[in-house]
Amino acid sequence: MLLRVSAQLPAPAADTVFRDMNGEAVLVNLATNRIFSLNATAARFWSLLVEGATQEAAEERLLAEFEVGPEELRAEMSGLLRALRAEGLVE
C-alpha cells in the first residue's frame, strides 16, 4: 500500500527516543526497551517525521538529498512506516 501524496505523516510515539550513537542513528522504544538501527535515509526520514512534514514534503526532500527514484522511495517510505507502526514507534 502506497501513501497518498498529500498524507500527513504519523507522529513519533511519546515513548520513542531518537539517538545518534557514534554516527549510528537509533530509535529506542522506552516501553519495550527495544532498539532499532536506522540507515542514513531512514534517519533523515525520521527527522522529517519529527518536524511534522507531510508525505509529499518528505518525499521531495529525500529525492533531493539521496540518489533514489520516486517509485523506489515511495515503496521504501511505505515499508518503513509499516515497520514503525508495527513496533509502536509512531502514532
Mind explaining what this structure looks like?
Helices cover 44% and strands 19% of the residues. The protein has one domain (16-86). The chain has 3 helices and 3 strands. The model has no long low-confidence stretch (mean pLDDT 92). The chain is globular and about 35 Å long. Strands 1-2-3 form a 3-stranded antiparallel beta sheet. A hairpin with a 4-residue loop joins strand 2 (24-29) and strand 3. The chain has helices at 40-51, 55-65, 70-86, and strands spanning 16-21, 24-29, 34-38. With 91 residues, the protein is of the alpha+beta class.
List keywords for this structure.
91 residues, alpha+beta, 3 helices, 19% strand
SSE run:
EEEHHH
Task: Name the shape in a single word.
Answer: globular
Low-pLDDT segments:
none
Write down the domain tally. Answer: 1
End-to-end separation in angstroms reads 18 Å
Q: What does this entry show, briefly?
A:
β2 (24-29) and β3 form a beta hairpin. The protein has helices at 40-51, 55-65, 70-86, and strands at 16-21, 24-29, 34-38.
What order do the helices and strands come in, and which of them pair?
Blueprint: E1 16-21, E2 24-29, E3 34-38, H1 40-51, H2 55-65, H3 70-86
Antiparallel strand pairs: 1-2, 2-3
